Amino acid sequence: MFSVSSVRRIVGAVIPSRMITTFFWIGYLPEWQSHWTAFFSIPLALLVVYFTIGFSVPAVLVAQVLLIFSLVLLFLGLIGIYFFQKTVFSESRYEITIHVAFGQCLMLALSVPAIIKTLTQIFLFNSFICAHFLNCADWFLKYATYFITTLVPYFVFRLIDIVKPWPSYWIERDYNNAFSNMLEGFFNAIYASALFYALNFILFNLLLIDVVEFYKQVFSGVFLNRGIPWVYL
């Protein structure tokens, strides 16, 4: 008959908790683990979108895929951190970075209208620069716009993760378990999304009513089984 510790070791051997918890071993880098995790989680999220529905789809579908992907990261993070802390001896909490990837991807999922608005404004600015000063090729204008746009939510999220407004700082200081780590990522995503929207409301005249209407469609599609079927993931 198997004991609890034996079952835990068996499950821990099957689940790649080290890879999950350190987000593909980024947590083992000597420094800047959170920065690199947040940075690489963005192209990973974009790859998930590309290989599930592609990019030539309504933005609502993109938000739905990002939301589902965030939930997958949440589940993997809870399981991975639990078994990582039970089976791998480590005194460094900085090796755990999956919550950063979860927070960054959740921020993307919750900020799609702001991302689109930012993309539009950056494209207009780049078009002006290319037309009057640089004489850019069309492909350069396109990809430069996409690249700069992906950096904006990254830096916004990193700012929040560094500042750690309440309760993120309190959670990180007093707790270190699967639930607390993922909860910290959740609150950081909420704060980062709020800051990103505030910047768009002020600078680009994004309307709150448009954001609310957008996410009514997103959440009805996910939770009422309309829009993207779960089989895509």
UniProtKB/TrEMBL annotation:
The chain crosses the membrane at residues 6-29, 36-55, 61-84, 96-116, 122-141, 146-166, 186-209. One of its GO terms (molecular function) is phosphatidylglycerophosphatase activity. The keyword Transcription regulation does not apply. Signal peptide: none annotated. Keywords: Membrane, Transmembrane, Transmembrane helix. Residues 20-199 form the YutG/PgpA domain. One of its GO terms (biological process) is lipid metabolic process. This is Phosphatidylglycerophosphatase A. It comes from Neorickettsia risticii (strain Illinois).
